[in-house]
Amino acid sequence: MAKLIFRLRNVPEEEAAEVRALLDELGVDWYETRPGPFGLSAGGLWLRDAGDFPRARARLDAYQARLRERVRAEREAALREGRAETFATQLHARPVAVLASLLAMLLVLGLTLALPWLLLR
Q1: What are the TM regions of this chain, as residue ranges (predicted)?
Q2: For the chain, what are the domain ranges?
Q3: Are 46 and 33 in contact, with CB atoms under 8 Å apart?
Q4: Domain 1-84 belongs to what topology?
Q5: Residue 54 belongs to what H/E stretch?
Q6: How far apart are CA 3 and CA 66, in angstroms?
Q7: Angle at Cα 9 formed by Cα 61 and Cα 27, nearest 5°?
Q8: Kind of pairing, strands 44-47 and 3-7?
Q9: 83-98: pLDDT as tens digits
Q10: pTM of the prediction?
Q11: Which residues does residue 8 pair with via DSSP β-bridges, in sequence order?
């Protein structure tokens, strides 16, 4: 019976390609489902034989640990060198968009806090 090994929601194509290559390297039989047309399903990579899952999961976990460390190191280097996008750089680059987002958040927070009180009066 098939078993989902990797969800493709919000995954960069580069990472998905690396996971596909990892599954091919392991020699497991897998297939891919694409996202649905209305965004209800995300798509994913499936193993045809659930017996391959423990071995594939172990390799995938090791890959993701290496990826996590690499991305964290790149982020730290970008912060040290001043290349990383921060709140301040976003505010400087797009002040209207950032302020509009903050106002929208405050509006939602205000409605969340005030609406129950107003409805229960």
Answers
A1: 96-119
A2: 1-84, 86-121
A3: yes
A4: Alpha-Beta Plaits (3.30.70)
A5: helix 53-81
A6: 24
A7: 45
A8: antiparallel
A9: 899 999 999 999 999 9
A10: 0.72
A11: none
